[in-house]
Predict the structure.
Amino acid sequence: MTIIEITELFKTYNDSEIQVHAVNGVDLNIEEGEFTAIVGPSGSGKTTLLNMLGGLDQPTSGSIRIDDTDLGKLKSSQLIDFRMKNIGFVFQSYNLIPVLTAKENVEFVMHLQGRPKKEREARTMQLLEAVGLKGRENSRPSKLSGGQQQRVAVARALASKPKFVLADEPTANLDSKSTENLLNIMEELNKQEKITFIFSTHDQRVVNKAHRVITLEDGKIISDNRKK
Amino acid sequence: MITSVAWRNIWRNPLRSGIIITAITIGMFAGVFSATFMKGWMNQRLEAGIETETSHIQIHNPEYRKNYDIRQFIPKGFELAEQIATNPAINGVSPRVTIQSMIASAETGTGVKIMGIIPEKEKQVTSLSEYVTEGDYFESISRNPIVIGKKLSEKLKIRSKSKVVITLQDTDGNLTGGAFRVCGIFDTANSMYEETNVFVRYQDLARLGMLPEGVAHEIIVHLHDQDDLLPTTLALREQQSDLEVLNWKELTPELGYLNEIGNLYTYIFVIIILLSLGFGIVNTMLMVVMERVKEIGMLMAIGMGKLRVFLMLMFETILLTLTGGTIGIMLGLGASLALQQNGINLSNWAQGLEDFGYSAIVYPVVEVEMVVVIFILVILTGILASLYPARKALKYNPADAIRTE
Amino acid sequence: MRTNLKIAWRNLWRNKRRTLITVASIFFGVLLSAYMTSMQEGSYEKMVDMVVKYYSGAMQVHHENYWESKSINDTFEESQDLNQLILANEEVDFVIPRLESFALASSEELTKGVMVVGTVPEPENRLTSLKNNVRQGSYLSDNDQGLLIGEGLADYLRLGINDTLVMISQGYHGISAAGKYPIRGIIKHASPELNKMIVYMELSNCQEFFSADNRLTSLVVNIKDNDLLQKSLRKLRDELNSPYTIMSWQEMSPEMVQQIESDRAGGIIMKAVLYIVIGFGILGTIMMMIAERRREFGVMIAIGMQRYKLATILFYETLFIGMIGALSGLLVSIPLLSFQSQNPIPLTGQAALVMEDYGFEPYMFFSTEPSVFWHQAVTVFLITLVIALYPIFSANRMKLINALHA
């Protein structure tokens, strides 16, 4: 089932006389349960594409439909609401709120959604265990290693059962062991929870793990390979 | 060059620097303006007090001021006045007979100090004659003229040409009195003075009080130049060793005192403002230092000694503080100078102030010494505020600093 | 809301030093302002006391022309009806009938102008505690033929207890007033000025002297609680008709009211400058706190926190800083000033002389009226509210993408 439908997407910056087409005509469909990597060199437009996918930026023209909702038609506060209910984020760094413990961080979005305490706690502990951090739930981010912090981020991203998770270079700051660990966990969760994962990455290890690889160059898709 | 680097560093974060500079500006503007305001106010009171009321030096019989007894006069008062007038530093001498007694109109009566004067001589020692607003100063009425204050005329409900009765005890101890006609009413903006001081002609009062010829209760001396006050006082004291010689500072100590106190209050106010600003400056510089951990580490690594790093940061702090301080002081001076022409009108509160001798319009006075002191205080604040953050910077290990991510 | 409060509180302590320095600046400001206000209000209270207690009383009833003329001719007849009317009001405590005027007083050799106050000894004492001020001799009894005179006056005229004082003046309707009276007691009046010229007589004795039979210049009205003054004044004004009129102490001594108001105004300006300067310091801190966390804010909004919630957290942070500062300032200033008010600072030297010249005891007095303190709290609260506008504004206007890549 298609959950994301991107049609004729353009994003153009007018930067003092020079026009930059960051995203230069992209058509793309993403199905439920995918584990997809979007790759491309710096300046290929993948960050811009991902920003628009996450409702963090507006296209110059074209549309992004997520499950029949056209993101372009949503107002700013509606977008925030939409993200809260439907999208999970894992950033390269600074994912977590430093003053909250791991547990509180994971609970955060569910809290915003107004879910009852019992439900929040149950889901939180389940996910923390799934990412292998049972026992560290009361630690603040400063007390966790880079890899552990990213795992908490993944747990949080999944906590509210979003339609899909956007991961922007999640492994960029990690050593190889942590990277492997994180990727395995994410693949596991993708299978178990059937939640779509979309990566934007430079990292070959992520590409290797991905089930579908979309390559961008100069704002256009130049290849789209399904592996499994 | 160092200045230029420090200056550019301040503006690396224009918003943050802007805020603290604005705070300092406001604080110093307030400080300087209140200083000039206070000074102007005090000065006026002083001027008014001296020029219209006490004059510079007064000479009395040593027993006189204990009880204001009519019999404690200076025996050859008139002669003495002539003698003293020859002193070149002195520009006017006025002998008076002065009695504390009672004045009454048809309406009511009250106690006053009655001064019997020679009008031409009195004009040389006080400027009171210039403040006569109704009638004149001993010109029109020939028989028993009297000049009274505006507040008194309101109290007694009389006007120019009205009749009043003076009752007093003469040198024989008899109660006597005389009718006087108001020839002039003065308005000096010191209601208290207006209510309790009246002037008549020397000869009229001497006659009434049965005083011997040529005596005086008070000899009032006015100088060309205020600076001669102390030397002239001392000289007169020596010459007239059997008489009491006092200058205005000794006669009305509260005037001199208020003057000095005014200055002190201003400095305290400025210091308090600077202390409060100090907190903000310290916080700002702490942030600056923390942001530049890598840079400072690098400087130390390439060979800038700890002392130089310390001085550099101290200099930046001083420069930051001085920028705000200078603008604030300039604005304060500007405002003071602008208002010097027309003064600041306090007439809403005029009534209460006039009662104590303060005028309702204040002309700010700029004193160089004050501005210099405030400048120095600003610099001191910069120096003190820099100590803590600069010390923190020195604790950085260059190697750690460079590695910070 | 609890979560927002929790996050806000924890955020404060991320940079302990910075928060503490900011809090310290507020603490300093509150302490200083409270101290200064307390000193000012303390001296005003004393000044008002002087006027009300030792002289005019809370209100006075006069003949409608009396205040302008201060003439003995503008007196009114004492009447029980009037007294009943006034005493019927529940706020009124008691009244004192008085006849005051000017006279010349002489001993054998010397004469001085004096103020004569004819009054009823017992109620007079209730208001002014005159009896306590008797230094030699004794207080006036009912129907006493004797006088109480001020120490300064006694010294000048060189008179002592049982000596005779001769007085002459102008009485009611121009009748000459003359009389000889023994000195019953010598008092030390609170005001050094009055001390040199005041004479107290028993009322009927005084009325006889001035040929003003049964007449009064004023009826002093005392109330149970000074806070009820305005209310009482209004009621009595309605009830009293011509030729009577009633005035409050403020109307009788407007210069004093103005002096106090202008001094208060000066103080307010100084405190305003102080708080503004401190306010900027707080603003600077808040700005730094926000600038540092741009990235974090971006993440929060990205994952679905509405901007207004972020603004709320920042608002709470600002408020917390203000509250901690104000509370700590008050916690120290309240006991400190309570102590000070019990132990006023004695003034020496020139300062003391000036105070005494104007009729005040040479001490620095402190007030512990609640307003001294809660004014500071309210000011800090208002300042932090205004400052909090910045983070709210910032949260709403922040560009999401820029923040995420900060």
Remarks:
- Chain B touches chain C through 54 residues (CB under 8 Å).
- The first helix of chain B runs from residue 2 to 10.
- The mean pLDDT of chain B is 85.
- The radius of gyration of chain B is 31 Å.
